[in-house]
Amino acid sequence: MRNDRIEAKREAESLDEPAREARDLAERLGLEPYPVRYWVVDHDQMNELIAYGGFQRRYPHWRWGMNYEQQKKKDRHGLGKAFEIVNNDDPAHAFLQESNSTADQKAVITHVEAHADFFANNEWFGLYADRGEDGPNAAARLERNADRIAAIAERTDVDRDEVERLIDAVTALEDTIDQHSPVDAARSVEEPGVAADVSDGDDDPLAAIEARIDDLDLSEEVRRDVFDDEWLEARGEGIEPEEPRPDVLAFLRDHGKRYDPESGKAVDREPWETTVIDAIREEAYYFAGQKQTKVMNEGWATYWESVMMGGEGFAGPDEFLTYADHMSRVLGSPGLNPYKLGFELWTHVELRAARREVTDKLLRVEGVTAENFHSRVDLDEVAALLEPHPAIAGAGPATLDELADLAAAGDSRVDAEAVDRALSARDGSGSGPGEGETGGDGDEMDVERYPWKLLTREGLAERHYVLSRPEHRGALRNVSREALEEQARYLFDVDRYETVAEAVADVDRTAGWERMFEVRESHNDVTFVDAFLTDEFVREGNYFTYEYSRAAEEHRVASVDADDVRKKLLLRFTNFGKPTIVVLDGNFRNRGELLLGHRYNGVALDEERAKATLKRVFELWGRPVNLATIRVEYDDGEVRRAKRRGEEPEGTEVGVRLQYDGGEVTEHDLDAETESRIAADDVDYDTKPDDWLA
């Protein structure tokens, strides 16, 4: 064991320099990540961290052991090696696999730096993180929850099995939070086992009813006779939200009870039970940001990893093939791959912004209009003019003199101080290029290994300019006349250029990156896909939808239309890809029953899973619970006829209400009014981030 610790320490020390230099490069590229603390762990420790969701301590529960065994088997059979884990915190903590090659360690470090930037700057993470001056402080919060729940489970007056049963029920509903609202809707509990008040009197339905009775000014005899305690309890057991309430878990916390099998009635919860619900609900908000931005976040990290590792040679010559294999495996994973989709969408965002910047300048050239753009402008000439300056593209020991000349002329693309230090190291010490010396700020000036030190962000943006990459050099030819006409309409009282060369010289090479940083701040996966999955993206990426054909009894390509692809992806990402469930009535049928509604968007529920979850809801409500949904039913005869015709059968949408009262789940017809409340004529994804963040 001691030898293992020594080896891990030695491995960690070897990564000090790559971590330091990766942070320098990330900041030069414009990233603003949280500080990152790196830890090197072995296979078993990594499997434990994965089981615990990226943290070293969680509350006691059987599922962590189950997660561990599953991950251990994957790791043993080569089905799911984890290269790293990084959590959203300030500082962020990144755990690297001890067995990684040097190339893999460098790759995951650059990947982590980009993740830490996304955590720090995306507003959806801010819904959890913006909770005071200390930022997210996730590790401390989750450790505090672990201590609280562990203390509850160890109490002599509490049955540990009841604690685990409650945790099972709450975790089954952890995706029913309102992920568009700040986490502070959850109560703050300061001591283990002590819950804060559920609500003030204004929100207590029973108190409101009693106040109305007082206003009637009845005699005490009539009051006791008509409005007895049993009647009051039935009326106070639930409330009906004015609008469907998306935060089901909070509603259950505030108004739910516990079913007592001995009395056969709902009884008030113990304070410790509310403490457990609050703790797990708070953690659900922490993980919500990651679930909402999986494609964006992984794509963002993959994009900047590729710039640093490949574009800037952070992977050394002897490491590049290993890194290339690593990246190809990540991007080549089958199915809906968030790394690949995210990487390609971010590149598309960059490309569109850069292309618009260039066409904006070219439309200002005298004699150029949207109508004659493609015939008047020599796009080969434009492509040549957009190539980076040779000294910028080849920044390093061989171009020091040229870079010094640019710096002397005040060129903002060059880090004049770094160039001067590199020249001094080369000419003053007599050392060869690349050996260098330690600079005044303590950084080693090795410009052969770290050429980015010679350039500013502007220089790096030109060096990696998207329209200069071979795969995108023809992108300007794809701009339609309609797009140019729309863009030209907004060119009022602007500077004009006499030649194409003058216009291109004024192009801002950072425009693509600037747009990426803007998008990174406010979007989540739903808004990201909705805004940027364009016809062009679908066509060039060969994206399509597929679905199961009841006629052919197999999966087939359904559409290559961008709207269809977008809709399919939005369905996968809305509400973490889970069905959206809302509270419709907390006093259904005036019996204190709970009525939940499935916001039907054309995709039917998995009813077996829904029935199992409904039983968990019962445990948190204590009284009968109902779920309104819509299913699609198919007539057997129609299915047979459709098969003969090679067509898809037409199903019939039917409303159904599932009910669970502690016995068996039963099915009932759904009334027309409730069905209309949950049915959607057109799927509304509410995809405007400004509305969600208001």
Automatic annotation (TrEMBL):
SpoVR-like C-terminal domain boundaries = 579-630
User: Which InterPro entries does this chain map to?
Assistant: Spore_V_R, SpoVR-like_C, SpoVR_N
Superkingdom assignment: Archaea
Q: Where is this region: Disordered?
A: 422-445, 664-694
Instruction: Output the Pfam families linked to this UniProt entry.
Output: SpoVR, SpoVR_C
Q: Where is the composition biased (Basic and acidic residues)?
A: 665-694
| Name of the molecule in the record | SpoVR family protein
Which species is listed as the source?
Answer: Halorubrum ruber
Tell me the lineage of the source organism. Answer: Archaea, Methanobacteriati, Methanobacteriota, Stenosarchaea group, Halobacteria
